[in-house]
Specification:
Blueprint: E1 2-5, H1 13-26, H2 43-49, E2 51-56, H3 62-72, E3 76-82, H4 87-99, E4 106-110, H5 111-118, H6 140-146, E5 147-148, E6 151-152, E7 155-156, E8 162-167, H7 168-173, H8 182-195, E9 202-203, H9 208-217, E10 223-226, E11 229-232, H10 237-251, E12 255-256, H11 263-271, E13 276-280, H12 283-290, E14 298-301, E15 319-322, H13 330-341, H14 343-351, H15 359-363, H16 365-368, H17 381-389, H18 401-406, H19 408-411, H20 422-439, E16 443-444
Parallel strand pairs: 1-3, 2-3, 2-4, 9-12, 11-16
Antiparallel strand pairs: 4-15, 5-6, 7-15, 8-13, 8-14, 10-11
InterPro entries: Bact_solute-bd_prot1, SBP, SBP_1_CS
GO biological process, one term: transmembrane transport
Family: Belongs to the bacterial solute-binding protein 1 family.
């Protein structure tokens, strides 16, 4: 196995979507994976023959997976390449596809970004390779993100069912009860900040992923896509629930003006001045490594609810593995993708700290009974697994969500630094997303 870190010249995101639509017009039929064969692909024969599989991914747990795959199939060489994280890799991938050379056999693609590749028919339909047999192997949220009708465009690698992380030491000091609803959350925010003006219930400077995840949990479904027909509507009831609550926090200055993943953010989580996080179940490893000094202070609870007594949840983060149409060794690429996302490969990644998208692992006694020293011995996986069961499965992203997220702070972000209201910011985001989509050849809100 070889591991490389590669940096490529990055084109404009506008070019990415333009390329996507041009590919849609001339792409091969996704129903047969572009091969003209309706039958199962001979993956076993490809493994016996061997060859090289190039994998673009930034996820560190894949290193061990690649080693194990090569041990099991000694004729296969896996080359891991870090071509950049998130949108940097997506742009590099689109550029390679457009150039007709240099594309990997397997690519890590986050769920929110997968649409821009499926609409372009630039990723392989994995159903003819046997992927349909895994339909019940994954939890609803991730599986919903990777398939459409009978086509399966990727296999889920991990997931991010949301949970509520809170600093128990801070809560106990100020006699704050763990909120079970978002109304109680606002009350807790007020009580904490009143007790100590240096303490905030959370941080927020505007984050597209966090915003859309909470709208998702509230029942909002602002995006709908049918081929190249797209609807963007942030006027639904779920979005209104979110904006009404979050506007109170902003108006009363109850959230810390600290950007997530910054040094100030880590410091706030460590010293208790940022008292909670509402985020994906992948967070424990980040707390353990980045906020080690607060070990034992933090606990996990279910996400507060928009309706008292409800159990709704949403995903925040998570990635899949897809096989580009331009892959040279598609059968081998599928074999690695399947290995890395199911069975032994999934178990290996979980052991390294990844959060599973596989039902068997989420339901296993060993997983559910795992005690987290960081959370005072709490069996936090039980909360995460329950959250995964309650994720709304009818959520969808824009086929150009990568671009939409890139302009979030130019629109909604103004609500955090000016008198602009969240509803107005979301309307500006909607308008900009509609215009961009129409400019790129989609039919949006028409």
């Amino acid at each position: 196995m070889r591991i490389h870190t590669t940096r490529r010249l990055l084109g404009a995101l506008a070019v990415v979507s333009a390329l996507a639509l041009s590919a849609t017009a001339c792409g091969s039929d996704a129903a047969d994976g572009g091969s003209g064969s309706a039958g199962p692909k001979d993956v076993a024969a490809a493994l016996a023959k061997g060859g090289k599989v190039t994998v673009w991914a930034w996820e560190p747990t894949l290193k061990k997976v690649a080693e194990d795959f090569e041990k099991k199939y000694p004729k296969v060489d896996v080359e891991l390449v870090n071509a950049g994280t998130g949108d940097k890799q997506y742009t590099a991938l689109q550029n390679a596809i457009a150039a007709g050379s240099g594309a990997p056999d397997v690519a890590q693609v986050e769920y929110y970004a997968l649409g821009q590749f499926t609409i372009a028919k630039s990723v392989e339909d994995l159903a003819p390779y046997g992927a349909q047999k895994h339909a019940l192997d994954f939890t609803g949220g991730p599986w919903n993100a990777v398939h459409q009708d009978k086509s399966i465009y990727a296999l889920p690698m991990d997931s991010g069912p949301m949970a509520f992380f809170y600093n128990k030491k801070v809560f106990d000091k100020h006699s704050i009860k763990v909120p079970t609803t978002w109304d109680e959350y606002v009350d807790a925010a007020r009580a904490l900040h009143k007790a100590d003006p240096k303490v905030f219930i959370a941080n927020d400077t505007g984050d597209a992923g966090a915003t859309t995840s909470l709208i998702w949990q509230a029942g909002g479904r602002p995006y709908k896509t049918d081929g190249t027909d797209v609807t963007v509507d942030f006027g639904d009831e779920g979005t209104k629930k979110y904006t009404a609550t979050w506007q109170k926090l902003l108006d009363e200055k109850l959230v810390a003006p600290v950007t997530s993943w910054s040094d100030a953010w880590y410091k706030g989580l460590a010293d208790g001045s940022i008292a909670t996080l509402s985020t994906g179940a992948w967070m424990p490893a980040n707390l353990s490594s980045g906020v080690a000094s607060a070990s034992g202070d933090w606990r996990v609870a279910p996400l507060p609810q928009w309706t008292k007594g409800a159990k709704a949840s949403a995903e925040n983060g998570g990635s899949s593995l897809a096989v580009p149409k331009a892959a040279k060794n598609k059968e081998l690429a599928y074999a690695f993708t399947e290995f890395a996302t199911t069975g032994a490969g999934a178990s290996s990644r979980i052991a390294q700290g990844a959060f599973p998208a596989t039902r068997a692992d989420l339901e296993s006694k060993a997983f559910l009974d795992t005690a987290f020293p960081y959370f005072g011995g709490q069996k936090a996986n039980q909360i995460f697994a329950e959250s995964a069961k309650n994720v709304g499965t009818d959520w969808s992203y824009l086929p150009y969500q990568v671009y939409a997220n890139s302009i979030f702070n130019d629109t909604v972000g103004k609500a955090y630094v000016s008198p602009t209201k969240l509803t107005d910011g979301l309307k500006a985001w909607q308008d900009a997303s509609v215009k961009y989509g129409n400019d790129q050849g989609f039919t949006v809100n028409k």
